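hey
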């Protein structure tokens, strides 16, 4: 003969079912594999922007407006400042140049040419789509060196600030600021895209297998035979930044054994 459940039993059964469901969810979550957090770090000059072309335009402008002597002197000051500071300071060089040309008021117009330059026209083909391509797997961040005025202006005018959704870092020596990079953009793995093997090698020594180095072979530094001979190869080499769009996620988890070209 069937017995009618007591009110106490009726009240207890839903709770037991709920408890069993919660235990199942906890077990299921504990067995889930955590998706690694990947951060893609992009340099700007000669990686996303054709900076060699920008410099060629600047030299041409200086020659046309102020003459060959003034052009060459400005460039001498620019290189002197690069040696002193560790980065190219266009506006700082202009300040020193102005002191030497104090009685040539037309020099004051040079700053307008610099800050109003159409950097968006100097983006490498495929640069923006390359950034968008990797954003499907992780966070894309600009990691650049430069001054506090002109370099941010370049990033803004080129449209890169918006493309990177305000994730912009500009240091004096970025390879010395990796702890700050990790603090601001924590990740399980980093991918560094740069045109300087010196930078890629320095970061590799610090982060080791936590970073995949990508060598963008664009611009004069990337094609210097001495540089290519002196530093180890990167994990990935790209003939141009647009080729990044051909890489799948597995490519960025590759780490080669460091070696120099022509040596094993």
């Amino acid at each position: 003969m069937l017995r009618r459940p007591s009110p106490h039993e009726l009240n207890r059964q839903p709770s037991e079912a709920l408890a069993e469901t919660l235990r199942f969810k906890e077990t299921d979550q504990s067995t889930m594999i955590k998706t690694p957090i990947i951060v893609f770090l992009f340099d700007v000059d000669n990686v996303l922007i054709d900076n060699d072309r920008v410099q060629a335009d600047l030299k041409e402008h200086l020659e046309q407006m102020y003459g060959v002597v003034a052009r060459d002197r400005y460039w001498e000051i620019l290189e002197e400042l690069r040696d002193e500071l560790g980065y190219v300071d266009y506006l700082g060089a202009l300040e020193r140049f102005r002191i030497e040309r104090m009685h040539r008021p037309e020099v004051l117009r040079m700053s307008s040419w610099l800050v109003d330059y159409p950097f968006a026209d100097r983006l490498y083909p495929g640069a923006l789509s390359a950034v968008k391509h990797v954003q499907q797997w992780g966070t894309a961040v600009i990691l650049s060196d430069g001054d506090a005025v002109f370099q941010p202006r370049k990033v803004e005018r080129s449209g890169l600030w918006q493309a990177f959704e305000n994730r912009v870092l500009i240091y004096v020596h970025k390879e010395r600021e990796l702890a700050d990079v990790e603090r601001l953009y924590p990740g399980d793995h980093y991918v560094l895209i740069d045109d300087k093997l010196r930078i890629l090698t320095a970061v590799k020594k610090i982060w080791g297998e936590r970073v995949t180095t990508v060598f963008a072979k664009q611009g004069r530094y990337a094609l210097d035979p001495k540089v290519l001979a002196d530093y180890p190869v990167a994990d990935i080499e790209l003939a141009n930044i647009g080729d990044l769009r051909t890489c799948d996620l597995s490519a960025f988890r590759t780490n080669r054994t460091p070696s120099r070209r022509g040596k094993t």
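The domain at 52-115 is CATH 1.10.286.50 (GTP Cyclohydrolase I; Chain A, domain 1). Residues 259-264 have pLDDT under 50 and may be disordered.
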